[in-house]
Amino acid sequence: MRTLTLAAAAAAGLAISACGITRVSAKPGQIVAIGAENEYANVISQIGGRYVKTDAVMSNPNTDPHTFEASPSVAADVSQAQLVVQNGLGYDDFMSKIEAASPNSKRKVLNVQHTLGLPDSTPNPHLWYSPGYITRAAVGIASDLSALQPSHASYFQANLRRFKQSLAPLQHAISAFARQHPATPVATTEPVADYLLTAAGTHNLTPFTFQADVMNGVDPAPQAIKAQNSLLSGRKVKVFVYNQQVTDTMTQGFLKLASQHHVPEVGVYETMPTGYNYQSWMLAELKAMNRAVVTGRSTARL
Amino acid sequence: MHGFFASPAVQLGAGIGAAVAIVAATLGVFTVIRSQAFAGESMGDIGTAGGAGAYLLSVGPVLGFAAATTAAAAIMELLGVQRARGRDLVTGVVLGAGFALSALLLYVATTDNTTSGTTSTVMFGSLFALRSSDLALTLSLAAIALGVTLALFRPLLLASTDTDLAAAQGLPLRLLGFAYLLALAIAVALAALTVGSILSTALLVGPAATALKLTDRPLRAVVYASVIGIGAVWLGLVLAYDSYDWPPAHHGWPASFFIVALVLCAYLAGGGWRRWADRRAA
């Protein structure tokens, strides 16, 4: 009997806390949408405009999304959502678990990996750093929203056109960087910004195995650390790009070495920092890269 | 082997590893004689909480490990771990509470903090990722544990092998037991720094158990165990360094795996030698 009472009390407590932290409060007629990461939520709200209430699961720039675990409040949000956008590639597997736990046949789930048709073996999961990928994700979001509210389809398509146009300055900046600084050698800690770096025509001299180790929280081998050190101390790279949200003692060591040898540092963000939208965020990081190459100035935070 | 001795990470790992191996071997011999391997294992597991806490507070891991294992020793003492009856029960209760605290702190460390590899580093060690700022503290702790154990060597040995005789001689048994427990806490914390909190018991008990198969004389066993421990740590370091070129290429295997595997090999070889020697003597 006592266990039963305890169990009932625990269940009641769970129910209360689950209700208490639900953040979604959509106006009547609004689509409830969730972006697993705040950059996807940002794109949803740019396309959905006034007809969509968007929430982001991961928006704390101080958390490493790779190690994020979902809380009951996220589960409650997902159970109400009509559209969920998630990255895929194992980056936000917890979303699939939550969706499976609260099945809803009317809910649309846009997995960006699947939209892009990328295999599970794709090594770099930071897909949103590719403006081309984010455009294709935006197209998928617009068509999902149109299917959910066919009466506002033209509104969503107009917003999609506007979104694509607003990416033009970023596209121009990328091609200008690639033209003005062809094959710029760079070093990185993690593959966070690698899609952007590749688009900008840079040559990332840090081996991918090293970047993957840091991303996965494994200590790289001494040989790998030595190779990375020599990239900085030998000034073989023009910019040191590091994940601003994951800085451990090893990264601190690289930063110190980079400053000693006057290699400019650029901190990049894994999730969208506050005060930015997707376009302005990417543009700001590219400008920081450009500033580093042209003037040798470092940018630690946006 | 290319660049092995020139690597600062290797130098630091080899130096700290050797000091830790000596302390673990010395305390390990007493742990085996006193049949308190479970207490040592539990302290290591509880050390997990300290390691995670150290990450959260951004202090060196050795401080966290030592704080947690010392606290565990004190609580075990308070709850009466020295009475042979119920000793495993007390250890088990403290172990359970320690694991619960570890679960909480590791959860906080991986979700709210920015260090993604905390869990694996704390539990399974990272000999190549030691911080040179921890060197002084590590060596001081090693000196304290070793000094206390060697100073109390004779009385502690008697108390461990023949409690009745020790009591008849008027030795302060409880005080000796507590001094041993505190020195053990330090040894476990240091071993956790080298091979991780979960694997620390392997470095503590393995070389000592092997040495006690080779000799019955405790002081000689301490020397043998130290040599075995240092050998396992150094050879483990070499293999871990060379594994950089093994599949999956350019990741390297964890040093703790090699060290613990080598300790096991030494134990099996020691057992084989003992059987062979016994048969020859018979």
Largest interface: A-B, 29 and 27 residues
Annotated CATH homologous superfamily of chain B: ABC transporter involved in vitamin B12 uptake, BtuC
Order of helices and strands of chain B: HHHHHHHHHHHH
Oligomer: heterodimer
Uncertain parts of chain A = 1-22
Q: Name the average pLDDT of chain B.
A: 90
- Under the CATH scheme, the architecture of the largest domain in chain A is 3-Layer(aba) Sandwich
Q: What proportion of the residues of chain B is helical, as a percent range? A: over 70%
Rg of chain B, rounded, reads 19 Å
Distance between the termini of chain B: 45 Å
DSSP summary: helix tally of chain A = 13
**CATH homologous superfamily designation of the largest domain in chain A:** Nitrogenase molybdenum iron protein domain
Overall morphology of chain A:
globular
Summarize the amount of helix of chain A as a percent range: 40-55%
**Could you tell me the strand content of chain A as a percent range?**
5-15%
* Largest sheet, strands/sense/barrel of chain A: 4 strands, parallel
Number of domains of chain A: 2
Order of helices and strands of chain A: HEHEHEHEHHHHEHEHHEHEH
Task: Give the low-pLDDT segments of chain B.
Answer: none
Question: Which fold name is given in CATH as the topology of the largest domain in chain A?
Answer: Rossmann fold
Keywords, please?
heterodimer; A: 302 residues; alpha/beta; Rossmann fold; 4-stranded parallel sheet; 13 helices; 51% helix; globular; B: 282 residues; mainly alpha; ABC transporter involved in vitamin B12 uptake, BtuC; 0% strand
Helices and strands in order:
The complex is a heterodimer of chains A (302) and B (282).
Chain A: H1 2-20, E1 31-37, H2 38-48, E2 52-58, H3 72-80, E3 83-86, H4 93-101, E4 108-111, H5 112-116, H6 131-148, H7 153-166, H8 168-180, E5 185-188, H9 194-199, E6 203-204, H10 208-215, H11 222-233, E7 239-243, H12 249-260, E8 265-268, H13 278-295
Parallel strand pairs in A: 1-2, 1-3, 3-4, 5-6, 5-7, 7-8
Helix pairs in contact in A: 2-6, 2-7, 3-4, 6-7, 8-13, 11-12
Chain B: H1 8-33, H2 37-56, H3 61-79, H4 87-112, H5 118-124, H6 135-151, H7 153-161, H8 163-168, H9 173-195, H10 200-214, H11 218-242, H12 255-281
Helix pairs in contact in B: 1-6, 1-9, 1-10, 1-11, 2-3, 2-4, 2-5, 2-9, 2-10, 3-4, 3-9, 6-9, 9-10, 10-11, 10-12, 11-12
